[in-house]
Amino acid sequence: MLKREPIPDDLLVTDRRPDPIEVPRGFRLRRIGPGQWVAEPFSIRWRVWGVVLASCTLTCAATIQAMRVHHLRRAQQPVVVVNGVPIRRDQMYQDLEQRHGRKYVHRMVSQELLRQFASERGCWPSEAEVDERYAKEAQRPGFQEKLVASDVTEREYRDDLRLRLAEVNLIIQGVRATEADVRYFYKRNTDPRNPNALFRTPDRMQVAVIATHSKAEAQQALMALIRDEPWPKVVAQFSVDPSRERAGLLDPLERGRSPFSKDHLSEETVFRLREGERSAPVFSGGKWWIVRCIRRWPALVVPFDQARRDAEMGARIEIGSLRNAERVATERRAFIERASIMVLDERYSEVSRPNVSPAPQ
Prior knowledge:
about 15% strand, four-stranded antiparallel sheet, two-stranded antiparallel ribbon, alpha+beta
């Protein structure tokens, strides 16, 4: 182990701290080595930190101002220009808010109150419940076509489905259905005489149509199709049915419940079409129709084993509606009445007093 040699006396003398009287005012001593001291301005560190802080403040202010300018320019950016006159984005948003703002705020407040009420009682559906129900409903014939026709996105449909499931969960909470209840519900919903049977579907088909007021116009439309003119073009030219806005596409038809069901022969003509075929002009409901079959689904009765779960849920909903509906409505009304709603925009002041529906009698 090396032995440390003592510092010579002459170095010890020079290593002593200088007399403070020798240090100029506004300076302080800093040791930089044996016998080495340096006087530096006492405020230099604070000056450095001040410069850094000022730089950060100026940078943040410049960034905020740049963001404000960017968003202002984006908000005032034209979305369309009509004969040289621009229609700005902020004008569009302002018009939308004036026309639909109150309605949507009311809707959002009602949905949030329902979410809180259902969550408080453990009835708000999980994502797994929503996914399962959506997958089941998406298997129904014509589901995607209905979404397109009603201009509803998948996200919007799932949001509405979540609210519907919450309503159902509130009604069926604590309700059990016996085997007899389940089978009775299934039997009623497979009865051919029940037009709203859940587990029995008649023949169904997806069609697009051209509807005219006269047979002559229908023949002209048919001749245009024979000349291989595009179907959407012929629909736009000849059809008088509102479906012309969707290239003639109708919601899926069911045998016995279609626009052609009033005339048995017309309905049979339509339902004899195979996928890809089109009919000659058919008279029904005071109009002449050319029908193009896009897709078909045969009549179907869901077996009890496959429908059991839905039948049990349907039976629980029926029982719960009798047992729980009035109580749930009363509790929900009380929950809404004591809700605290702070309105920050006076234009929507009325939502601070949400409408409370009376309990069903």
